[in-house]
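Ops channel
N.P.: pipeline sanity check, posting one input/output pair.
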């Protein structure tokens, strides 16, 4: 997952998830932010990742599995408006937390 970063916006009633590609020291958006559970963010990310040229199937599986784990973690901890960022980072080292509201 070193080539990809998952970005989240942690909200009380939703979690927004997007995927960026890491090239050198720069991040380039691969997907829009999708809000779970407002929409089926996992399915929307899958559709966008399917349309990405040059994205290997194994990388897509790793990304989507990580998204599943992040959504599960959010569901278990959504009562926490401000998650413990060091704990979040220890569970998901490739995650970028864009904000907590």
């Amino acid at each position: 997952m070193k080539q990809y970063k998952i970005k989240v916006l942690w909200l009380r009633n939703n979690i927004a998830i997007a995927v960026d590609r890491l090239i050198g020291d720069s991040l380039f958006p691969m997907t829009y932010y999708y809000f779970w559970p407002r929409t089926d963010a996992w399915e929307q990310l899958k559709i966008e990742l399917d349309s990405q040229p040059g994205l290997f199937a194994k990388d897509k599986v790793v990304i989507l599995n990580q998204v599943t784990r992040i959504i599960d973690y959010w569901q278990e901890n959504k009562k926490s408006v401000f998650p413990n960022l060091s704990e979040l980072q220890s569970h998901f080292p490739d995650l970028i937390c864009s904000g907590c509201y």
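N.P.: looks fine end to end. The chain has one domain: 4-100.
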